[in-house]
Amino acid sequence: MTDPEAGRLRLAVALDGAGWHPAAWREPDARPGELFSAGYWTDLVTEAERGGLDFVTFEDGLSLQSADRYQRDCRTDQVRGRLDAVLIAARVGPLTRHIGLIPSVIVTHTEPFHISKAIATLDWVTSGRAGVRLRVSARRDEVTHFGRRELPAGPHAREDLFAEAADYVEVLRRLWDSWEDDAEIRDVDTGRFVDRDKLHYIDFSGRWFSVRGPSITPRPPQGQPVVAALAHERVPYQLVAESADIGFVTPHDSRQARAIVAEIRALQDGFGRAAQTVRVVADLLVYLDDRRSRAEQRRARLDERAGREYQSDALSFAGTPAELADLLLEWHQTGLTGFRLRPAAIPHDLTQITRALVPELRRRRAFPDSYGAPTLRGLLGLSRPVNRYASAS
Amino acid sequence: MTGPVKQVHLAAHFPGVNNTTVWSDPRAGSHIAFSSFAHFARTAERAKFDFLFLAEGLRLREQHGKIYDLDVVGRPDTFTILAALAAVTSHLGLAGTINSTFNEPYEVARQFASLDHLSGGRAAWNVVTSWDAFTGENFRRGGFLPQSERYERARTFLHTTWQLFDSWHGGEIAADKASGVFLTDPGAGRFGHHDAHFDIEGHFDVPRSPQGRPVIFQAGDSDEGREFAASDADAIFSRHSTLDAGRAFYADVKGRLPKYGRSPDELLILPAATFVLGDTDAEAAELAHEVRLQQVSGATAIAFLEQLWNRDLSGYDPDGPLPDVDPVPGENTTARGRASVRMHRDPVATARDWRERAEAGKLSIRELIIEVTGRQSFIGSPTTIADTINRYVQADASDGYILVPHITPGGLDEFADKVVPLLQERGVFRVEYAGPTLREQLGLPLGPVAGLRVTSDAARDAS
Q1: A131 neighbourhood in chain B, CB within 8 Å
Q2: Domains and CATH numbers, chain B
Q3: Are the C-beta atoms of A186 and B74 separated by less than 8 Å?
Q4: Which helix (H) or strand (E) holds B366?
């Protein structure tokens, strides 16, 4: 029997501060003074869950936000400062029941052992709704914040950053499998709490780190929490194809969308992962209002306040929820699994998604009326993987 | 009696990965399901406890080169579970053990500052240090630290995080929509620290949290550990839960404070304490013995013996006499990832002592281990336990206790229901929380140094 959910459109929201537009925090309904409170994030995620969205992501970095990719920009007229994304996700976890939670983590300066158990714990806290979106960092100030490494240099610097990310995912995945599901036995007769034959050293050794294992945290409910990465070109596409469950991509039209999906599928075959499901999800920056002209005016007003046009890597869409629904359904035909919408301003564009776009998609029978699976993997149509260390018996 | 009576502080230690925790009891629940943590935290908050405490170990313990399987194994990530518990509690402090050897100050500071924001000012950090290459095999840093440098790194690590916490003073976020000023200071978060351990600078990205700095715990019992606590900690997690040992430790550590310009009430002494409650003292004593039997199975007794003897004793009968052979001297190669083996400073002398005690009392291996390890701190009826705790606190054996129940997650319930009301009746334990932050429950000032600007030059001079 085929899963009725298998081919459906998935919808997610990317949360970042007061919204993705740098002037969003000045909107009348914005709550910029509450960005560092639990209540703010709880409100956003519960709103997303009321709208039936499959998951939310949380942006993060190890330095102050900046318009410059490589260093601090010293601006004081935009949101600066933030809380750790994994901890925000954990804080909202017990207050939600269905929605997937995918915090961002910087690979370049963190320990895969720590992050593995953090995401496993997020999965325990949410009964199987955790994921992690991995980023590399080329920011010079993040290097000096940690002071223990140089960034890769030379012609292959970028490839090296992403190769390290691939090693990092390998360590996460091995550590998640380092406990078999039935390792805890509580055998009173022999006095053994665990069957140590079902705990495994992972013995990873690579160019950047070695990790012995096993994890200190038992295998999480999903077995393998969901791994995601944002990718704009070949090198990160390889990371997605080799290691991830979700690739966030940024096509600007359906032709590009089709080409990106094809490129990732081809790379996936090359890595021997043809049979595994990699979800390709397109990012869109959205300004939504009940009339297109109003959305366009709002975009113009935000740009004017920011002093310049906000340039995004993703396509910037200004229009009505119905028009966005048209676009999503058209692009969905290209092989994209779904969309991660970046609300230009929060809460306005978030509630336009949950209260106008979602009902519109439901009217067209393109989005489910309720959650159809208890885990994030389930919502994405991914099965629970067999443990790589489990002996075939 | 002069002056007001001392108030008792109480905290709850989530049952750990050691043989204090009885997993074989039919009432014992999951050690990893969130429901266990939530139950435990809610009980502690219902009882108006100061905080919940989590230990941490970054590598599974081994004995004879194999993963030790007789105790509970497996636990969550400290920061992540505490952030989740902040969602199901409103006043309970959230204290986590975080290692200063296998982490970096910038990341730990942003995690604690985030936890403090997300909990409304309830974060606490038990700063521990390790030097072993065994644990290092799980980390980029790998390797190890010379044992002599571990406290130096811990102290420097802690002070570096303080620079980060203090790099925001509290008034920088204007978020003024009309003027378009989000930050009042383009230099917000600026820090610099340059020494042999950490050579870092830049701008910290988490604005000042409700407590300013998390409450700092220290748990080391060595002379260096006590000095570290006296100079830098807000509270000590000690092992000295008996009256005499507690008073000696209390006097020793509080006596070290003046040389750091600190007064005795700036450092709380909170020993870990186990307890067994019964309707009567006699019933409790009986229960306590049963619990000790559960905690020390025959296999556990042999394992304990091996940790001191530093050799394979699997051929010995736990119900028989102690081995005639002596411990293997030198580095302990039997047990790894276990702090307790380092406390056996003279294994041969300890073994001789144990043999003499066993012979005098006609004790088997298992009976001897039950005798020499981990007898419960408080055993008795609710009245007896409440009175004992109060007496110890008033006698300056401690400022309160971090209770370690032996059953997960319900082991605290009875204490909350039966002992806490008695302490409240005696006027020595709070009926309502003092305020939203952990510092308020502990009677500690909010994080210092608001208004002090730490420039990289000043930091360089200070380090």
Answers
A1: none
A2: 9-279+378-462 (3.20.20.30), 297-372 (no CATH)
A3: no
A4: helix B365-372
Query: Rounded distance, CA A86 to CA B111, Å?
Result: 9
H or E element in which residue A137 lies: none
Q: CA A236, CA B243: separation in Å to the nearest integer? A: 62
Q: How far is A62 from chain B (nearest CA, A)?
A: 7
Residues in CB range of A157: below 8 A, 6 or more apart: A138, A151
Which pLDDT does position A206 carry in this prediction? 96
Q: What is the pLDDT of residue B168?
A: 97
How far, in Å, CA of B9 to CA of B6, rounded?
A: 9
Does ipTM come in above 0.95? yes
Question: pLDDT tens-digit profile of B19-32?
Answer: 999 999 999 999 99
User: Is the pLDDT reported for residue A2 higher than 70?
Assistant: no
Q: What is the pTM of this model?
A: 0.96
Give the CA dihedral B37, B38, B42, B45, nearest 10 degrees.
Answer: 60
Mutate to test the interface with B, among A124, A126, A308 (most CBs of B within 10 A): A124
pLDDT surpassing 50 at residue B458: no
CA distance A77 to chain B (A): 5
Q: Which residue of chain B is at minimal alpha-carbon distance from A200?
A: B67
B189 is written with which tokens? Answer: 């978060």
| Residue B60 backbone phi and psi in degrees, to 5 | -65, 140
Domain ranges of chain A: 17-379
For chain B, the farthest-separated pair of C-alpha atoms sits apart, in whole angstroms, at 83
Q: How far is CA B326 from the centre of its chain?
A: 33
Name the burial class of residue B243, with classes exposed (0-12), middle (13-18) and buried (19+) by CB atoms within 10 angstroms of its CB: middle
User: Closest chain A residue to B142 measured between Cα atoms?
Assistant: A210
Residue located via tokens 């209002």: A289
d(CA B135, CA B399): 33
Q: Of B75, B84, B38, whose CA–CA distance to B56 is shortest?
A: B75
Q: Helix, strand, coil proportions of chain B in percent (round to 5)?
A: 40, 15, 45
The fold of A17-379 is TIM Barrel (3.20.20)
d(CA B130, CA B151): 9
Residue A392 clears pLDDT 80, i.e. is over it: no
| Cβ atoms within 10 Å, residue B427 | 11
